[in-house]
TrEMBL record:
Residues 41-290 form the Peptidase M14 domain. The keyword Nucleotide-binding does not apply. This is M14 metallopeptidase family protein. It comes from Belliella kenyensis. InterPro entries: Peptidase_M14. The active site is at 255 (proton donor/acceptor).
Length: 489
């Protein structure tokens, strides 16, 4: 082939592939969506562990375009409500927090309700497109008891998402009844997933995961599931503009007891959204915004039926989720143990531990060995460093006030990772300093082994470079005092 012919055929190839894959089927006006979020964000919520009593007024006292109806009560007699708006013929049901400790989407639904209630502004076109074409029904907080206990399950210890068929819990019955009486064309099943999910073979967290759940073991695609997949392609397109490479596809293995799978089977095109992790967003306020934007965009795609233009193949190109993230990955560090010195990787996860009023973090060693298939939210190449044990400062501190930024920095640099305090006057047993605080009798274990709390130093030549305190990595050159979630032992 001569050069001109090659050029021509390449040109034709690119033209045809462009034709098959329009970049945007639906106009994505992210700037407008973001503006809408900033204006209509529910300001009374700014963290994710809110209680039922703190927010239920946002549901039952809501007047105006929403018709609010109590549709049942939880095991512990908390009312569950549905809120309906819109005059359209296409019915959409969105429900959240079926798992009590998964509240990200609930926040976004409050934001969405505020948005839909607005009027006479630059968002009227979007809003009326939704309200004229759709009937939107929202059930926020399907599991109020689990929410207050901050657990996944309900007060009977039942996982509602494995109770879609057995219906042994009142909350599952409420949700099933809500579907049967409304028979929505589309359903949004809103959850949170572990922050350790990453996008397959990348170091990026699966900040949002999506799925059109299967309706049978063969994971076949029928018209109902196809529509959910098409909406998801559009949502992914919008999300990629905000969090490129951070959307994963959840495993579609059929779970015959789950609500999403059964909604799909019962004829509702069902879209699962899982909120995962995002660096520097422990309270998931950025992810809440992503939920708002993705759901709003999806409602528009459904309202004008433009989702139908998406080609199914594009659903399968959304990368899969994997579970390979850790909070901190220390690579190729020298360790001394059992009289041996060896180089290896240490992986650390900081798990949340609940107290009755708050939570703290337990940063523990999750794995030791060749961790080259894992990724870290924070990673450090420790090829020229070794692990050094830390010390407990021998003199008691009178109280917490003596632990200033300067003093803590000095102590860390001198190789102390814990202090003992005589009088702990803070109301709770929590603190925010990057040092372990012990009461007078507590003995701190400093062994490097699986499951142990990660407390040690990283040393280069004869110089301490980093402290690892309760799994947090602290650069000793500039010790920051950022909001550590620590417990006084
Ligand atoms: Zn869940």
């Amino acid at each position: 082939m001569n050069k001109a012919l090659i050029r021509l055929s390449l040109l034709l190839f690119f033209m045809s592939s462009c034709e098959n894959k329009p970049e945007t089927v639906h106009q994505i006006d992210l700037e407008l969506y973001q503006k809408a979020y900033d204006i209509f964000k529910e300001q009374s919520i700014d963290s994710r562990r809110f209680k039922y009593d703190e927010v239920i007024h946002l549901v039952k006292d809501r007047k105006g375009i929403f018709e609010t109806v109590e549709i049942g009560q939880s095991v512990q007699k908390k009312a569950v409500y549905q809120m309906t708006t819109g005059k359209g013929s296409t019915k959409v049901l969105l429900w959240s927090q079926m798992h009590g400790n998964e509240s990200t989407a609930t926040m976004a639904l409050f934001d969405l309700m505020n948005f839909l209630e607005g009027s006479a502004d630059e968002f009227d076109t979007i809003r009326s497109k939704i309200l004229q074409n759709l009937q939107v029904r929202i059930i926020p907080m399907v599991n109020p008891d689990g929410m207050d206990l901050w657990i996944r399950r309900n007060a009977l210890s039942i996982d509602l998402n494995r109770d879609a068929v057995a219906l042994s819990s009142p909350e599952a019955k409420i949700l099933k009844q809500a579907r049967d009486s409304f028979e929505p064309a589309f359903g949004f099943n809103l959850h949170d997933q572990q922050t350790y999910y990453n996008v397959n073979q990348t170091n990026k967290p699966a900040t949002i995961s999506v799925l059109a759940p299967a309706f049978n073991y063969q994971t076949e695609v029928n018209e109902v599931r196809k529509k959910a997949m098409q909406v998801i392609i559009g949502m992914d397109e919008a999300l990629q503009k905000m969090i490129p490479g951070q959307v994963g596809k959840y495993n579609d293995a059929f779970e015959p007891r789950a609500f999403g799978d059964n909604f799909q089977k019962w004829g509702t095109s069902t879209i699962l959204i899982e909120s995962g992790g995002l660096i520097n967003d422990p309270e998931k306020q950025e992810i809440r915004k992503l939920n708002f934007l993705a759901i709003l965009h999806a409602l528009l795609l459904i309202a004008d039926e433009s989702y139908r233009d998406y080609v199914l193949d594009d659903y399968y190109t959304i990368p899969d989720n994997d579970l390979k993230l850790m909070d901190l990955l220390i690579k190729n560090i020298a360790l001394e143990k059992e009289g041996m010195t060896y180089r290896t990787d240490i992986g650390i996860k900081r798990r949340e531990v609940d107290t009755s009023y708050d939570y703290y973090v337990n940063g523990a060693i999750d794995d030791i060995g060749d961790l080259s298939v894992f990724y870290g939210y924070e990673e450090i190449d420790a090829t020229d460093m070794k692990v050094v044990e830390g010390k407990v400062f021998p003199t008691y501190f009178e109280n917490m006030d003596n632990l200033t930024h300067e003093r803590v920095t000095e102590l860390l640099r001198a190789g102390y990772l814990a202090v003992k305090v005589k009088h702990v006057t803070t109301e709770s047993s929590l603190h925010k300093l990057p040092i372990q605080v012990l009461n007078q009798t507590y003995e701190l274990a400093t062994n490097i082994s699986l499951g142990a709390t990660a407390n040690f130093f990283l040393q280069k030549d004869d110089q301490l470079k980093y402290a690892v305190i309760n799994g947090y990595l602290i650069n000793l050159e500039s010790v920051s005092m950022n909001d550590f979630k620590m417990k006084i032992y």
